TrEMBL record:
Keywords: ATP-binding, Coiled coil, Kinase, Membrane, Nucleotide-binding, Phosphoprotein, Transferase, Transmembrane, Transmembrane helix, Two-component regulatory system. Residues 318-402, 456-527 form the PAS domain. Its EC number is 2.7.13.3. It comes from Natronoflexus pectinivorans. The chain crosses the membrane at residues 268-290. This is histidine kinase. It is found in: Membrane. Residues 529-580 form the PAC domain. The keyword Transmembrane applies. It comes from the Bacteria. Residues 294-325 form a coiled coil. Residues 605-821 form the Histidine kinase domain. It catalyses: ATP + protein L-histidine = ADP + protein N-phospho-L-histidine. GO terms for cellular component: membrane.
Length: 821
């Protein structure tokens, strides 16, 4: 029994757990559905952010962002990619948040930065075992860097200008490729932020230099589409974490920025043990061998003397060889000793002695080796007067800082002026004296080439400044480095605003995605690019341009693009005008063809309409001659009269249409009674309706001064006559109601019937000339198809408008308005 109770209790508890689980899942699902979602870009940059082997986003920045999202109830969608792609994606709104971005004033105009820096960093130089003591050691080397990063901009623009350095910058898509390039000696050094040391990419053979470059602050950046309140929430949460030593911020900092230590006994303990054992073993061996060693000591001394003599000869041979090599190299080689202290020679140099120089160096400074050793200041006197000050300043700076000396200038020897490059590295002696070992190269031809290139660049810039087309230049990654004045005029951006990816701000939003995707593809393919797009200037002016760019290569190495933009706004306007004209001509042609068709139908109809009353008039005129009795004669005369009236109406309609077409209709405005007009028209049509089954009704106001209007009475009668004629014709039985109502500023008149109505697919034909709506019905009824067209023309002449409502089988109502005055 107790066992049974236990089972029942377990079942109950399991059900309860299931119910709770369902409730928790439901609440969680509701939370997830309602949670605000942000797309976060993650590029490989351990330990700050990266995807681990399990495909999970991890790192210091990921920990911070996850903590903020948890507290705010956000959902984060992490996207894996490369830095240079995310740099464009966040501008276009494809991702919402990009962590680990160094602040710069240029980037601040493109992205939204959060206010509080997440962490501070700086750049370090990493190498394969070689220790870097100063920035000058980078000269003439290959340097790897993350493509599109702040490090690349710093290396390409700021550092070489500040230190007069020349080196090759090679960009890589991500940090794993960068570390692999250093390991394979594809580059001499790599430049990365300080966190690279703490990443799994830092190889044991890598060496970090003590040189610190470009301190920076790292932030989160947000897409322009993100609301500013979201960024403020990030700053609020970040401020709380930074001020709490027990927060996720500091726990993550300790986790990611402390290099792993080996477990167990430290390695140096084993090393000491091995050394101690080795010493003991050596001591034992030494004790055992000491006696035999003493015996053979005399013999060994003789052998050593022979070996020393041999070594001496080898050293002399090597010295001879090295001297020959130094003399043969195409550079001047020297070694001088500079005395420590504040005593200076009259030339402005510290006290120096020439320890060694080859003949080429002596020749370069216009002397011999012996003369140079006797007077070490001869090279100072050979320096061009205009370059001497720069030499002394560079020398003093290198001497004070004990760093590599680099100088380029002109030497004058035997009235021959040539450019040279002087480089040397210091070795500091214990007493403070410095030994400089260096080389001097003749760079005269290179300088002449640079001068020609400089003149060519000047010519290019002059031509670009006066060019009637916009000119631009980019790097291999699409980064814009130059635009001419015409380009800025067409785009509405300044020179600085157009650099980098800033030029995209001028592209019309409707063309932006097309232009960016096409430009990225062309850059990858290194193919010429031609595209038409629009600039939207700050004053909202739209300028159409034709952009054309060709790859720029140096020794088959793709370096970027050079291109032009041409203003094609006038051409685009002309194309639009031409298209409109073609559309108008097409419509006019169609209208003319339709008019010809209608006129042909009208002529066929007119021949029938005119022939019918003419035949009646002619026939009954003949019968009138032979009529017997007054009653028969009176009947024939009435028929002739009715057909004559019908024929007169047809001719009158044709004449009215002709006058309307020719613009010969004039409006004659008078004041008259609207009620009187309705009475007379009503009396005219009452006799015509009386013979049929239809009933004619009139709805009018009282005969007062208020029914007086100012308009064209004749044309109003014609309008009412045509509308009532149409109603009588198509209402074989039922009611016909004519009337009017005074509105606030106009009169609304109407003619309604309960006749056959108009099919909806024929509505468009109602006011067309030479048209009758229902061919099956109108074929048996007389009419020209002009009455409603004439009525519409007269209403519009009188300043009103006309419309109708109809339902097939239930009747039609025509309405038209006239102004009161």
């Amino acid at each position: 029994m107790d066992r049974l109770k236990q089972i029942i209790q377990n079942i109950s508890e399991n059900k309860l757990i299931r119910v709770y689980s369902v409730l928790i899942l439901f609440v969680s699902a509701q939370f997830i559905v309602n949670a605000e979602t942000f797309r976060v870009g993650i590029y490989p940059n351990p330990p700050k952010l990266y995807f681990n082997d399990a495909g999970e986003p991890v790192g210091f920045f990921v920990d911070i962002l996850n903590e903020i999202a948890k507290n705010e109830g956000w959902k984060l969608d992490y996207v894996e990619g490369e830095w240079e792609d995310f740099y464009l994606d966040i501008q276009g709104g494809k991702i919402d948040i990009l962590p680990d971005v160094a602040y710069s004033s240029g980037r601040d105009t493109i992205f939204h930065f959060n206010q509080i820096p997440v962490i501070e960093s700086w750049l370090e130089i990493f190498s394969m075992g070689e220790i870097i003591s100063s920035v000058a050691d980078l000269d003439g080397t290959r340097i790897g860097v993350l493509r599109g990063s702040i490090q690349e901009l710093y290396l390409r623009d700021d550092l070489p200008n500040s230190f007069q350095l020349e080196y090759e910058v090679i960009g890589y898509r991500n940090y794993p490729e960068l570390a692999q390039a250093l390991a394979k000696n594809e580059v001499d050094f790599i430049i990365a932020d300080r966190f690279f040391y703490f990443s799994g990419l830092f190889d044991s053979d890598f060496v970090s230099s003590p040189v610190v470059l470009r301190p920076s602050k790292l932030h989160f950046v947000f897409s322009p589409n993100i609301d500013l309140s979201t960024i403020e929430k990030v700053d609020q949460r970040l401020r709380v974490m930074i001020n709490d030593p027990q927060s996720v911020y500091f726990r993550s900092l300790r986790q990611w920025l402390e290099r792993d230590q080996a477990d167990g006994i430290p390695g140096y303990v084993f090393l000491l043990i091995y050394i101690l054992l080795g010493v003991i073993m050596l001591f034992v061996v030494f004790t055992l061998l000491l006696r035999s060693a003493v015996k053979s000591h005399t013999q060994l001394l003789g052998e050593k003397n022979s070996e020393l003599e041999q070594v001496k000869n080898e050293l002399e041979d090597q010295m001879t060889f090295l001297t020959s090599v130094v003399q043969a190299v195409p550079s001047g080689i020297y070694r001088i000793k500079m005395k420590a202290g504040s005593v200076y020679h009259e030339s402005g140099m510290p006290i120096i002695n020439v320890l060694y120089c080859n003949e080429l160096f002596a020749k370069m400074v216009g002397t011999t080796v012996d003369e140079l050793k006797a007077n070490p200041y001869i090279p100072i006197n050979a320096i061009h007067p205009e370059d001497r000050q720069s030499f002394l300043e560079a020398n003093q700076r290198a001497y004070d800082r004990k760093e590599k000396f680099i100088w380029e200038g002109r030497l004058i020897t035997n009235e021959n002026e040539r450019w040279h490059r002087d480089e040397s590295i210091p070795y500091i002696l214990p007493n403070g004296d410095v030994i400089w070992t260096g080389s001097m190269q003749d760079i005269h031809f290179r300088k002449e080439k640079e001068e020609r290139l400089f003149e060519s660049e000047k010519l290019f810039h002059k031509l670009a400044e006066i060019s009637p087309v916009g000119i631009f230049r980019t790097r291999a990654n699409g980064y814009t480095t130059y635009v001419n004045p015409r380009w800025t005029e067409l785009s509405g951006l300044s020179f600085s605003e157009a650099l980098g990816d800033g030029w995209l701000r001028a592209v019309h939003p409707e063309d932006l995605n097309r232009v960016v995707s096409g430009w990225k593809q062309r850059t990858l393919d290194q193919q010429p690019s031609s595209v038409e797009y629009r600039f939207l200037k700050p004053d909202r002016t739209v300028v159409w341009v034709l952009g054309f760019a060709v790859p720029e290569k140096n020794d088959d190495v793709f370096e970027g693009y050079i291109g032009t933009i041409t203003d094609i706004t006038e051409r685009k306007i002309n194309e639009l005008i031409l298209e409109q004209k073609n559309n108008e001509l097409t419509k006019a042609k169609e209208k003319a063809e339709e008019s010809d068709r209608l006129k042909s139908a009208f002529l066929a109809n007119m021949s029938h309409e005119i022939r019918t009353p003419m035949n009646a008039i002619y026939g009954f005129s003949e019968l009138l001659r032979t009529a017997e009795g007054d009653a028969e004669r009176e009947e024939f005369i009435t028929i002739i009269k009715e057909n004559s009236h019908l024929l007169l109406g047809i001719i009158s309609d044709i004449l009215d249409v002709s006058r309307i077409e020719a613009g010969q209709i004039t409006v004659s405005l008078t004041e008259f009674s609207l009620n009187e007009v309705f009475d007379s028209v009503f009396a005219l049509f009452k006799t015509r309706v009386k013979a049929g089954k239809a009933e004619l009704l009139i709805e009018k106001g009282a005969v007062t001064p208020s029914d007086m209007i100012y308009s064209d009475e004749v044309k109003l009668r014609q309008i009412l006559n045509n509308l009532l004629s149409n109603a009588v014709k198509f209402t074989p039985e039922g009611k016909i109601i004519a009337g009017y109502q005074f509105k606030s500023d106009h009169i609304e008149l109407y003619v309604k019937d309960t006749g056959v109505g108009i099919p909806e697919n024929c509505f468009y034909q109602v006011f067309e000339r030479f048209q009758q709506v229902n061919n099956s019905l109108t074929h048996s009824l007389k009419g020209t198809g002009l009455g409603l067209s004439i009525a519409k023309a007269y209403v519009e002449m009188l300043g009103g408008k006309i419309w109708f409502e109809s339902q097939e089988g239930r009747g039609t109502s025509f309405y038209f308005t006239l102004p009161v005055k």
